[in-house]
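STRUCTURE:
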């Protein structure tokens, strides 16, 4: 019987390939959606895992996390620099690291921060060492530069029409180990360099008035605070602050009342209780404190809604394919009435005819389902690779135990679908078939 089935499928190879392809594409759509949504959840959760608490100016929680943890370029309002000094002296804080952004180089974001953040989140150096001067930089594992290369910061990005800063060029001193986060694509420089290159800090107080400082603060980290006076847009405004940046200046990571405004501070509390107390304390007035995990949970809810819509579309496609297969197989059984009648006339039992027709269709659908799983997995891998290349966040694509249940459900449906034409063949009279 097996030889007969194989010979029959070879004879009808073109139709068999069409059935397999239809089932595979319909299955792949649903599998790709499921795997991609799961990998996005896991990847983003792992990327935010090292950042317990984020503090910024009052505003959007989602944008604060996307900008500070995932380094998605967007201007943030600034909070007073005294917040950093207060956190640095707080006994409940293991470390607090400021971040300042707004510049880039060859599409990579330049992030101003401190050695504390790099030492506690990066996982070590692949080569080189930590920066120890204002004109030095450390790069993430995905940055296409080497130790010793020069980085000339550009304000904003090339697509935004930003200008290149000529007052300071960073020298790469170290390259970090991969972390699977957006920080793998970042160029990390001393926060004081970001301030000085934009005319902030102690030097700026001697050479710039309040309005100029407010405008340049927006360049260093985000938007100017609400209600604060500003000047012309940076694209048409000439800054005279090159003499504030000194590539050979030693690091100064002590922060006081004169600290410039900041878009965000990443905080590592000493205990879970301290984390909740700090979150409550800094969710008042002009500051906002968030747990990245909580923000991601809200984003996952939105992502889940989109997944349900896509799964519904995939299910609809699978339903149309199933209906098409039923129609095609019923017509196919009708066209094979003489063959089935001949089998019965030569003594083939009804159950054998049922088994032949059922097995042929089930094998085709089962192959299509298996191929669909492979295509869906490959599609999810490709999409994840594109996302990783763009954002630096590694998205792990893998099957889970629940996918086995999906596979079993689809195979059960395939078995049920193959039963209809098999029943039609089973009930067919050999005499009537031969007379047709």
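SEQUENCE:
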């Amino acid at each position: 019987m097996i030889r007969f089935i194989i010979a029959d499928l070879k004879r009808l190879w073109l139709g068999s390939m069409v059935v397999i392809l239809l089932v595979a594409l319909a299955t792949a759509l649903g599998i790709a959606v499921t795997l991609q949504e799961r990998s996005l959840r896991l990847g983003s959760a792992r990327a935010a895992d090292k950042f317990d608490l984020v503090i910024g100016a009052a505003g959007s929680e989602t944008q604060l996390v996307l900008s500070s943890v995932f380094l998605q370029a967007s201007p943030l309002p600034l909070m007073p620099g005294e917040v950093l000094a207060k956190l640095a002296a707080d006994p409940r804080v293991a470390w607090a690291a400021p971040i300042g952004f707004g510049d880039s180089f060859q599409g990579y974001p330049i992030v101003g921060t401190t050695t504390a953040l790099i030492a506690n989140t990066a996982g070590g150096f692949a080569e080189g060492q930590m920066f120890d001067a204002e004109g030095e930089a450390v790069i993430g594992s995905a940055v296409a530069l080497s130790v010793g290369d020069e980085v000339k910061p550009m304000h904003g990005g090339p697509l935004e029409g930003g200008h290149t800063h000529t007052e300071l060029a960073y020298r790469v001193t170290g390259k970090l180990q991969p972390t699977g986060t957006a920080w793998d694509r970042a160029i990390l420089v001393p926060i004081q360099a970001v301030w000085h290159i934009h005319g902030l800090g102690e030097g700026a107080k001697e050479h710039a008035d309040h309005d100029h400082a407010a405008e340049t603060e927006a360049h260093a980290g985000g938007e100017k605070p609400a209600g604060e006076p500003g000047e012309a847009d940076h694209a048409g405004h000439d800054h005279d602050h090159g003499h504030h940046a000194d590539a050979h200046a030693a690091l100064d990571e002590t922060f006081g009342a004169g600290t410039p405004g900041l878009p965000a501070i990443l905080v590592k509390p000493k205990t879970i209780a301290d984390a909740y107390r700090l979150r409550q304390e800094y969710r008042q007035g002009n500051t906002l404190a968030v747990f990245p995990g909580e923000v991601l949970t809200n984003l996952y809810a939105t992502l889940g809604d989109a997944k349900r819509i896509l799964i519904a579309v995939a299910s609809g496609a699978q339903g149309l394919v199933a209906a098409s297969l039923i129609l095609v197989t019923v017509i196919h059984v009708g066209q094979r009435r003489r063959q089935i009648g001949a089998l019965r006339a030569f003594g083939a039992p009804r159950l054998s005819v049922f088994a032949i027709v059922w097995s042929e269709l089930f094998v085709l659908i089962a192959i299509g389902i298996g191929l669909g799983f492979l295509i869906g997995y490959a599609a999810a891998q490709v999409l994840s690779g594109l996302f990783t290349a763009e954002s630096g966040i590694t998205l792990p694509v893998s099957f889970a135990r629940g996918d086995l249940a999906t596979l079993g459900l689809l195979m059960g449906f395939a078995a049920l679908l193959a039963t209809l034409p098999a029943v039609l063949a089973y009930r067919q009279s050999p005499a009537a078939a031969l007379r047709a």
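REMARK: The chain has a mean pLDDT of 79.
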